[in-house]
Amino acid sequence: MIMITKFTFLPGLGMISSHSNQPSQWLENLPQLLAMLASFALWIGGITGCICLIHFFFTIPMRRMERARLFLDLLEDALKRGQSVETMILSIAQSRERMVGVRFHLLAAEIEGGLNFGAALEKVPRFLPPQISAMLRAGEKLGDLKKVLPACHEILRDHPASVRSAVHYMILFVLIFSPAFITVSMLITVFVIPKFKDVAAGMGISLWPLTAFVFDLANSHILIGIELSMSLSMALIVLFYIGGPQFARIFQVNGFPITDWIAWRIPWKQKRLQRTFSAMLAVLLDGGVPETDAVRLAGDATANEICRQRAARVITGLEQGTKLDEAIRVFDSAGEFHWRLTNAAQARGGFLPALRGWHETLDAKAFQQEEASAHIITSGLVILNGLLVALIAIGMFGMLIVLLNRMVDLS
User: Fold this and answer.
1) Is the dihedral of CA 245, 251, 255, 260 positive or negative?
2) Which pLDDT tens digit goes with each residue over 226-257?
3) What's the domain range around 130?
4) I need a surface site. Which of 132, 162, 223, 314 has the fewest CB within 10 A?
């Protein structure tokens, strides 16, 4: 029997085409076929791995918040059933449930070692966001965790899809577009521009002023330095976003809380800190806690040193005889917090329901400012990169035009 075999492979992977009536020749090509299939598999695996890695980094903040929401739901359900928090945690840990995360089991191990819930939270600081941990510890001191759960749920309100997409686009720019531009710029600077300059010098050609300017910039590595500095700045922002509050604590200095100071100066973060302080203060006042203790615990619940300092100023004012709604002005220079708290004190139903509208307003403004900032930053970087690419392209094409004109003149 005569066997006719034909192999065809995609360009880039190579091409083998054989017409043979000898089975042994087909077997001779088998190692080459397997090697190309292995190369193709590695190529596909590398692309898939990069996509999975990007997805993993994209979803870290969302998974962190989702685990916190899950724990609050479990905590609320246990309190409704009259079960203690420690018993609930130990029972779930014994079931080997993976959905709750590794740090949940670390928390259970601390409780099993004899610590109560609040002390165990301090031993596992990365289990929950710092603000949620501080609120739960304040609720434990208050003697009723149920009272702080509404404020905790307000803190964990999910970001709108538009805010997430803007932030994800910024991460995508840092991980893909910026490194690609830096790599291409370095290749052009090292390999292409020196050749063009040698050709121009050999032919006695005078470069366009713009082309000479671009070549001088490339030789001084100013363009690459600008792009690299922007990329590093954006990468640091992305690290803060992915790493969360605990990562920011690494840069905290006891003498000067730089990360807390920066957080207070960022408009949307300041509004969220105000919302956290206001929600916790309302919960504590509704629970009958004295004003000075309520302000101190609310300041601790923000997990921000600047807020703690302002809470201390509020307490000083209260001790001097100032009313709470007047002393609270240090948290809001516009005076809206003062106005809201004054009306809440006169409303029926408690402070938290009366202030919920203001909390929602703070959330909406914070989301709007965060989304606008993310879009402005990413759009500005794209435009700036486009200008840099256009500058390089004009310089390169200007060189080519000069060479073509010189060749025409010589002909």
Assistant:
1) negative
2) 777 777 777 777 777 777 766 666 766 666 77
3) 62-155
4) 162
